[in-house]
Design brief:
This protein is mostly helical and 354 residues long. 71% of the residues lie in helices and 1% in strands. It contains 16 helices and two strands. One of its GO terms (molecular function) is branched-chain amino acid transmembrane transporter activity. This is Branched-chain amino acid ABC transporter permease.
Length: 354
C-alpha cells in the first residue's frame, strides 16, 4: 500500500484530526510563556495571510492593502474596549467594520484590473498611517493605544498567556474551517474560474465583477478578525501596525507559505513571525537582506511555496525509483472539460446571484 493511499483512509484522517485537537488542548498548558506567545502570534498572522489568500490566491486579484484591514480591526477593538463595550459586540464590529470598508472599496475598484487595482490597494496603508496619526482623539495618534481585556479569569485557573492562546486557537480554527468550506464550495469554484479566465467566466454566466467584490469583502472581514486577535495577543496598536512594509511582508508570507492553500496560510503566518526572529539572531544589521535571500531561495526551490514540499519530495522519490525498467508508462486520454459540470451549483447572473 502506498503512503498516499494510507493517508486517504477515513480512519487515518480522523485519527490525525483527533491528535491535532489533543495537541492544541494540551500544549498551551505545558509550553513556556514565550512559546505560547509565539504560537498565538503565528495564529494572528496566519488569519491575516488567509484573508490575503482569498483575494489573491483563490481569485487572482492583486491586493497590497490587507494590512490596512488588520489595523482597522485592531483600532475598532481597542476603541470598543476602552469604552467598555460588550466584548462580543466589539468582536462583531471588528469584523463588520473592515468588511463594510472593503465592500465600498471593492465596488469602486473591482472593475479595474492588473496594476490599476494594485495601485488602489497600495493607497490603503499609505493613506491609513497618516490618517491614524491625525485622528489622535480616536486612535491615540503616533503614540497608539493599549488595552488589556484578555487577562485570564480566576475561574479558569489559567495564566494569561494560556488563556490568550486558547482564544486565538478557537477563533483561528473557526475562521479557517469556514474559509475552507467557502473555497471548496460553489463560490470557490466560481473564484477559480474567474481567476483562470474572466471571459470564460462571463460566458458561463458568472459575473467576474461581483465575485471579485465578494472575495475582497471576505478578505477584508478576515483581516478584521486578525485585527481583533492582534489586540488579544499584542494588546497595543499604533499607526505603524498598518504600515506598507508590513503589507509587503504579509504578501511575501503568503507566497512563501503557498498561494491558494489553507495549510499554506498557516505556514505563511509562521514565516511572518519566526523568520524575523531568526534573522535577528543571525545578524541584526542584515535582517532585510537575509529575509530577501530566504524569499528568493524558497521561490527558486519551491515555486509553489512551502506547502508544495511534500509533493516535490514525492516526485523526487518516484524519479529515484525509476519508471519500471525503462518501459514507457501508458497514458490515459484527458477528457475535455464539460462547462455545464464546471458551473454546477455555482450561482450565476441568470440565477439571480451576482
Amino acid at each position: 500500500m502506498s503512503v498516499t493511499a494510507f493517508f486517504e483512509k477515513a480512519w487515518v484522517r480522523w485519527a490525525a484530526i483527533a491528535i491535532v485537537i489533543v495537541a492544541l488542548v494540551v500544549f498551551p498548558l505545558v509550553l513556556p510563556v514565550f512559546a505560547n506567545q509565539t504560537i498565538a502570534r503565528i495564529g494572528v498572522f496566519a488569519v491575516a495571510v488567509l484573508g490575503l489568500n482569498v483575494v489573491m490566491g483563490y481569485t487572482g486579484q492583486v491586493s497590497l492593502g490587507q494590512i490596512f484591514f488588520v489595523g482597522l480591526g485592531a483600532y475598532i477593538t481597542v476603541y470598543g474596549v476602552l469604552h467598555d463595550w460588550n466584548i462580543i459586540l466589539v468582536f462583531l464590529l471588528a469584523c463588520i467594520g473592515p468588511a463594510v470598508v472593503g465592500l465600498l472599496i471593492a465596488l469602486a475598484a473591482a472593475r479595474l484590473g492588473g496594476l490599476a487595482i494594485a495601485m488602489v490597494t497600495i493607497a490603503l496603508p499609505i493613506v491609513g498611517v497618516p490618517l491614524a496619526k491625525r485622528l489622535g482623539d480616536i486612535t491615540g495618534g503616533s503614540q497608539g493605544l493599549s488595552a488589556r481585556f484578555t487577562d485570564a479569569p480566576q475561574w479558569s485557573g489559567l495564566y494569561d498567556d494560556q488563556w490568550q492562546l486558547y482564544i486565538v486557537i478557537v477563533i483561528t480554527a473557526i475562521v479557517f474551517l469556514l474559509t475552507r468550506n467557502l473555497v471548496r464550495g460553489r463560490y470557490g469554484r466560481a473564484f477559480a474560474i474567474v481567476k483562470g479566465n474572466e471571459a470564460v467566466a462571463s460566458s458561463m454566466g458568472i459575473s467576474p465583477y461581483w465575485y471579485k467584490v465578494i472575495a475582497f469583502t471576505v478578505a477584508s472581514l478576515i483581516g478584521g478578525v486578525a485585527g481583533f486577535l492582534y489586540m488579544v495577543v499584542i494588546q497595543f496598536t499604533s499607526p505603524e501596525t498598518m504600515s506598507f512594509a508590513h503589507s509587503i511582508t504579509l504578501l511575501a508570507s503568503m507566497v512563501i507559505g503557498g498561494a491558494a492553500s489553507i495549510i499554506g496560510s498557516l505556514l505563511g503566518g509562521a514565516y511572518y513571525v519566526l523568520i524575523p526572529q531568526l534573522t535577528n539572531i543571525i545578524d541584526p544589521n542584515a535582517t532585510a537582506l537575509l529575509q530577501g535571500a530566504i524569499l528568493l531561495i524558497v521561490l527558486f526551490v519551491l515555486p509553489g511555496g512551502l506547502v508544495s514540499l511534500p509533493r516535490v519530495i514525492a516526485r523526487l522519490v518516484r524519479r529515484g525509483r525509476g519508471t519500471g525498467g525503462g518501459r514507457t508508462p501508458q497514458t490515459t486520454p484527458i477528457a475535455e472539460p464539460d462547462p455545464a459540470a464546471a458551473t454546477e451549483g455555482i450561482p450565476t447572473e441568470r440565477q439571480g446571484h451576482a
